[in-house]
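#random but structural
TW: two for the price of one
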Amino acid sequence: MKVTILGTGTSAGVPVIGCHCEVCASDDPRDRRMRCAALVETSSARLLIDCGPDIRQQLMPLEFRPIDAVLLTHVHYDHVGGIDDLRPFAVFGATHIYCDAKTARQIRAVMPYCFGDRLYPNVPIIKLHVIEPGKPFCVGGVEIMPVEVMHGAMPILAFRIGGFAYVTDMKSIAPDQLPRLKGVDTLVVNALRFDRPHHSHQLVDDAVAFGREIGARRVLITHVCHHIGRHEEAQSRLTEGVELAYDGQTIDVV
């Protein structure tokens, strides 16, 4: 399994408009962070996790071939704002989007031109599939397990695909959800920054502790803001087995 980290930034991205801090002014490409997304590729399926407003730029460098499924963690704009940009993939057929019921309702509400009997010309062809935590489904022979995590008070989805798990925007997780993530080899998980607690996002120590709790061998931190510091300096503060992910990074998962 190959995982490409397409974006590792928060809703504002990095650099932040109007900010001239050392991170936003950095010339290290690892400090330039588009909104969070990832691409999982196996021998039989190509899966896009989240589809934010940077997705056109994120997909342009990649080979243009079918995406078998789009897995949405939740409906916030930085995770769904690029769905309309998937319209070129209509040449391969419908785009199949898997999400919870709330996200499906809101996508229909904000993109009504993509649904119904008389579609607006050249819109993305979308097929929505409602999924639930704890009920696995298959795409191209690949089993995907949705897991509920809490984004503050909002239930959202994480995904486990074999030995890989992708968790973003999490603040907490209920004990009954943990077994669905136990024993993953590689975990990509959100951590906003090192200090100053946030009401709906983890900090780095929280993410590291979570990785240890589920027994992940390798933990990669994503969904970070510019307050985390420059990549090189932030990485030096992390313990063995924990990495600060960066845009364009590829990971091989057994």
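TW: number two ↓
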Amino acid sequence: MKAPQDFRNKSLLLATSIFDMVHETKNKSGIQLAKEILSLGQAYKKFLSICKAQGDFKEPEFAPCKEDIKAEK
């Protein structure tokens, strides 16, 4: 799954901080573990399992009415 590079980097840094804080890295650095989890698709699988536990992942529906408003500035 492709993600914007800045979002990917922030996610990796956050995960690294959490892994280092709770000492869950064993013989790897926090960043190595975070990159591995992301590249193997484990992060996405976990995201989907959380969504399923909360009633599944659904795209929001469009509102029946809408109005376009143009900003003046």
